[in-house]
Design a protein that fits this description.
Mean pLDDT: 94
Order of helices and strands: EHEHEHEHEHEHEHEEHEHHH
Number of helices: 11
Number of strands: 10
CATH topology of the largest domain: Cobalt-precorrin-4 Transmethylase, domain 1
CATH class of the largest domain: Alpha Beta
Number of domains: 3
Structural class: alpha/beta
Strand content: 15-25%
Oligomer: single chain
Low-confidence stretches: none
Distance between the termini: 67 Å
Shape: elongated
Bound molecules: S-adenosylmethionine
């Protein structure tokens, strides 16, 4: 939905991304929607009041956070029929490691218009700083705080061939980096901190180098950990390939055997077929 910025808002739900540090990152469209919303659902009214003050407006606010969301959601959904309800979080994009998905789900189920006003998100901002592959990435939010649950969560994604993104806090940073190195191998990584604020930094290195760096000096501020994808699987040697082809050919026609081994090794099917023919005719 794309309304002119000077018209009254159509009733419905507006998901409004807000800055993750630098208040100048609030988009003009986000400011216009906030200034015209009938009510803004907020995590912390003090944080949002500061933002509204910055754009020279005051709007009614209502708390919407993990502890009251189930109670207040039906009332907000009812109001969306005739009013423009904006949802913000303290920083960044609502719903991303923040409340909101059930509000969107229920708004849709009730037939209300849902509009998003895209903007800052710490995960994406950190990804743009890290210098690690961006073609495939997997956002995991906060790791569990208990050690065993954290190690299990990491083991679960060890084979994912993508850059990984985690939110983390300073006091837990070194321990998390160590657990990540143990569970994923010593991959290339980055720690992005205080993005868009005065002390923004992005430190890169392997997971164990970063764990060592922060071990005795937990950093202050807000943090995103980015971990590069696993290295390429080693190419199997030719004896292993022959053995796999011979085994497959005992069960399958030659072309299918080549296909099976191609799938398992990532090697070109055509080359494997030629090798399978040579083995068969030898
Ligand atoms: N919804 C938000 C978003 O779009 O990024 C994230 C909310 S989550 C509750 C807060 C976490 O995001 C922080 O603990 C930190 O890991 C990360 N974060 C938020 N602002 C950040 C910043 N300026 N620099 C680095 N990380 C940040």
């Amino acid at each position: 939905m794309n309304q002119p910025l000077d018209e009254a808002l159509t009733p419905g739900l507006y998901i409004v991304a807000t800055p993750i540090g630098n208040l100048s990152d609030l988009s003009p469209r986000a400011a216009a929607v906030l200034a015209r919303a009938n009510v803004i659902a907020v995590e912390d009214s003090r944080v949002t009041a500061k933002l509204l003050n910055r754009i020279g407006t005051k709007r009614p606010m209502t708390p919407y956070h993990d502890h009251n969301a189930d109670q207040v959601r039906p009332g907000l959904i009812a109001r969306m029929g005739s009013e423009a309800i904006a949802l913000v979080s303290d920083a960044g994009t609502p719903l991303i490691s923040d409340p909101g998905f059930k509000l969107v789900r229920d708004a849709r189920a009730a037939g209300h218009t849902v509009t998003t006003i895209p903007g800052p998100c710490a995960a994406i901002a950190a990804l743009t700083l890290a210098g690690l592959p961006t073609d495939r990435f997997f956002f995991l939010g906060f790791l569990p705080s208990k050690e065993k649950a954290r190690a299990d969560a990491i083991a679960e994604i060890a084979a994912v061939r993508a850059t990984l993104i985690f939110y983390e806090s300073g006091p837990r940073l070194a321990a998390s980096l160590t657990t990540l190195a143990d569970g994923l191998g010593d991959r290339e990584a980055a720690v992005a901190r205080e993005i868009s604020k005065t002390f923004e930094e992005c430190v890169t290195g392997t997971l164990s180098e970063l764990a060592e760096r922060y071990k005795d000096a937990p950093p202050k501020g807000e943090i995103v950990i980015i971990v590069g994808p696993p290295g390429e699987a080693p190419v199997p040697d030719s004896a292993d390939i022959d053995a796999a082809l011979i085994d497959a050919m005992t069960r399958l026609p030659t072309a299918k055997a080549a296909g099976e081994v191609a799938k398992a090794t990532g090697l070109p099917r055509r080359d494997l077929y030629a090798r399978a023919m040579a083995l068969r005719d030898a």
